Amino acid sequence: MGVISDFFLARRLRRGPTLLLPYAPDPATVLETVRLHDPQAGPYGRGFKIGENVELRGPIELTPELAARAGLPAGWGAAFFARTIDSEAGGDFARPSLLVRGLAERLGGREHPECQEPPEDLAEVTGGRPVPVDEVIGLLADDVPGLVVAAVTEAGTTLLTSAESPIEVFVTEWDADDVTYELSADGGYGTEVPAAARRAALAIAARAGGVARDHNGFLITQ
What we know:
The chain folds into two domains: 3-112; 121-214, TATA-Binding Protein (2-Layer Sandwich), CATH 3.30.310. It is built from six helices and twelve strands. It has helices at residues 3-15, 27-34, 64-70, 95-107, 133-139, 192-208; strands spanning 18-21, 42-44, 47-50, 54-61, 78-84, 110-112, 121-128, 147-152, 157-162, 168-175, 178-184, 211-214. Strands 2-3-4-5-1-6 form a six-stranded antiparallel sheet, with helices on both faces. Strands 8-9-10-11-7-12 form a six-stranded antiparallel sheet, covered by helices on one side.
């Protein structure tokens, strides 16, 4: 690698969002995991293209020299970085970070720079059918116990809250065949809360139909 290209690569890895992995990944496994975020993702240059405007570049071998130059923690074997391909084309500028964060969770890696704040939005089910509120409460009793109706807005959103769990459930009925179920929580919760929210989203999707995704926009499969 030339000095100039090495310099720019190190700067790109330092800036992030960068996925760090302790091993050299199988590209097919990476693509399979990326497609949990975007089923249409595919090969693109020296990596993958997600949506219309996001590139995931890699894998990049992390030598000790490159890691040190990029200011990355030691001990990681490979890296990917995500970027917006055309900054003037618009789109979801948070998507590169969400992509890297979700891949890190699923592939045993780490996001760089690390996100310090836990997400408030934990999971959602989109395109579902209406389910009676009492049935939703019973359906989620194991993962979100103690839910009660806290508010109903004129716009058609029902808020369920619990004194026993930090998870809140927002049910928005757009029409008879399009209901969104959103699960969120204020910060300061433990690691078990996101897992409970994902299980709850899967339970809702099994009953109401629709698509369950986590806070990073990845399909929830288990």
